[in-house]
Specification:
Layout: H1 2-6, H2 27-57, H3 61-86, H4 101-111, H5 114-126, E1 132-139, E2 144-151, E3 162-168, H6 175-178, H7 182-189, H8 195-207
Antiparallel strand pairs: 1-2, 1-3
The structure holds fe (ii) ion.
Fe (ii) ion binds at residues 33, 37, 81, 168, 170, 172-173.
């Protein structure tokens, strides 16, 4: 039990203030999203893992199996949000307006152009039924970028892709500001992507 507590997951520091992503994402949304939603995924993940370790020590297979959906949901929520915070930045601190280098070349190769990539990504992401995430992921087997969507908090890795860039389209991510117009929110998020961080994620995905 002690080991489980020592290795428990923590809410990572947000790399900017709650108001840093305004006007694209309001401070109110950021504060709720980070301090309530992401924090709840971390708390519930740790709780489910603690119960899982306890069940495992008792060879209670039924409980172990029953806990797997909570681990997947909350673990996915923690992983997804931890990526999301780091690929966004304040417009005033943005050093690149568009992707550069090999990542930009691969976008052109795999989608035709950045505009086509955006169009396809936005259509797929806006079209998610209910809650989920839209992603551009790297397929290591075929060495190419792909657009994918995930329901709920399912991690993109379950589809065999390495997450490079993504947008949370749960209503908690935009409804207070954009109401039901998910398309406006998704389109606006492109203004605050931190391309340096995204290019770094791409380099890591392609180099190992
Ligand atoms: Fe979220």
């Amino acid at each position: 039990m002690e080991n489980a507590k020592q290795s428990s997951y923590q809410l990572p520091d947000l790399p900017y203030d709650f108001s840093a992503l305004e006007p694209v994402i309001s401070a109110e949304i950021m504060e709720l999203h980070y301090t309530k939603h992401h924090k709840a995924y971390v708390t519930n993940l740790n709780s489910a893992l603690e119960k899982y370790h306890e069940a495992e020590s008792k060879h209670d297979m039924a409980s172990m199996i029953a806990l797997q959906s909570a681990i997947k949901f909350n673990g996915g929520g923690h992983v997804n949000h931890s990526i999301f915070w780091t690929i966004l930045t304040s417009v005033s601190k943005q050093t690149e307006i568009n992707p550069k280098g090999i990542f930009a070349e691969m976008i052109k190769r795999d989608f035709g152009s950045l505009d086509i990539c955006k169009e396809k990504f936005n259509a797929a992401t806006v079209g998610i039924q209910g809650s989920g995430w839209g992603w551009i992921g790297y397929n290591k087997n075929f060495k190419r970028l792909e657009i994918a969507t995930c329901p709920n908090q399912d991690p993109l890795s379950a589809q065999g892709l390495v997450p490079i860039l993504g947008i949370d389209v749960w209503e908690h991510a935009y409804y207070l500001q954009y109401k039901n117009v998910r398309a406006d929110y998704v389109k606006a998020v492109w203004q605050i992507f931190d391309w340096k961080q995204i290019e770094e994620r791409f380099h890591l995905a392609t180099s190992c």
